[in-house]
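Structure in, sequence out. Go:
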């Protein structure tokens, strides 16, 4: 079994309900165990600012799914919740990103793990710090040390899961 971490985000069609639905779907999946989710935070969008603010969380679980099978599962949940990819960093009903898959480093056409921009984004690292503050990241820092390097002034606590 591998410990996986995902980022969960939404800024369309009742974002909190979108996160809740995705979380429930993942919790019920046969190949996902020991599921835990962070608190939920609000943040300004990355990229185009002509869109609503985002709601973000992180989750962790163990799985026997391969990285690509897990990516396929995450993308199928996005599709079930009517995700449309209209523009890069545009608005979305649901965004499920595979952040970490054990200690593996993966470079494939469809998947890069650790997630390419996770170390730069407070809306990823803050929820991750709720789950694993002392986890060592690929850059040699713990999650909490990385959090202290980021500007998180735009993050707003929404609710505890």
């Amino acid at each position: 079994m591998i410990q996986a971490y995902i980022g969960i985000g939404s800024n369309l069609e009742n974002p909190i309900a979108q996160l809740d639905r995705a979380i429930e779907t993942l919790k019920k999946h046969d190949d996902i165990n020991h599921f835990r989710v962070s608190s939920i935070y609000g943040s300004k969008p990355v990229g185009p600012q002509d869109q609503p603010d985002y709601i973000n969380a992180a989750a962790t679980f163990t799985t026997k799914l391969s990285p690509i099978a897990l990516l396929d599962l995450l993308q199928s949940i996005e599709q079930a919740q009517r995700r449309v990819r209209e523009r890069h960093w545009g608005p979305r009903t649901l965004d499920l990103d595979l952040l970490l898959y054990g200690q593996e480093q993966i470079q494939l056409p469809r998947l890069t793990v650790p997630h390419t921009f996770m170390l730069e984004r407070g809306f990823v690292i803050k929820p991750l710090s709720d789950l694993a503050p002392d986890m060592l990241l690929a850059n040699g820092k713990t999650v909490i040390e990385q959090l202290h390097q980021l500007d998180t002034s735009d993050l707003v606590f929404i609710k505890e899961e």
